[in-house]
Amino acid sequence: MKKLLFLILISAFSLAVRAQEKPHLYNPSADAKADIAAAVKQASTQHKNVLLQIGGNWCSWCIRFNDLVTKDTTLDKYLNANYIVLHVNYSKENENEEALAKLGYPQRFGFPVFIVLDGKGTRLHTQNSEYLEEGKGYSKDKILDFFKGWSPGALDPKSYTKAK
Question: What's the angle, vertex CA 63, arms to CA 109 and CA 43, rounded to 5?
């Protein structure tokens, strides 16, 4: 009986520890301005754009988006081929007010919110994540369309000139 009680207590403790574990996509102590500058520099050398995912570890929709994109091979492959991804923290510990002001106050759309920058750091687009939702989650097709619509290739003028 003592062994059974001991096993039950150990099991309950393990579940309690797992329940308290939170995802750590966002770093509240990170220097958003420096991280964005580094991502832009990397994007420039790799001929990619930058995708800023702004949110926090407290945001279930932020975690849900990241889970879908990283676990779906089509989305993950397209994203990594065309973008440098950076998670920018917004939380009570650090709202990154200065960085977000420079980006046009994207927090007005809720979280997560996405900013696409080019390899020079120019803001190309702000995406409200609500438009990527479907049911109680996100639409893979809508996300892929978003990624494709703001990829470097989609914004390349050569894509729109007719060959003579």
Answer: 75
Answer for the pair 95, 56: CB distance below 8 angstroms, yes or no: no
pLDDT for res 1: 59
Q: The tokens 């420079």 sit on which residue?
A: 102
pLDDT below 50 — which residues of the chain? 16-19
Q: CA distances (Å), 151 to each of 7, 61, 107, 142, in order?
A: 53, 23, 23, 14
Distances in Å between the Cα of 82 and the Cα atoms of 45, 61, 164 are 12, 23, 28
- Residues 151/82, Cβ–Cβ less than 8 Å: yes
Sign, CA torsion 74/76/80/86: positive
* CB distance 53 to 85 below 8 Å: yes
Strands 133-134 and 137-138: antiparallel
Q: Given the structure tokens 């996509």, which residue do they identify?
A: 25
- The helix (run of H) or strand (run of E) holding residue 41 is helix 32-46
State how far the Cα of 40 lies from the Cα of 11, in Å rounded to an integer. 46
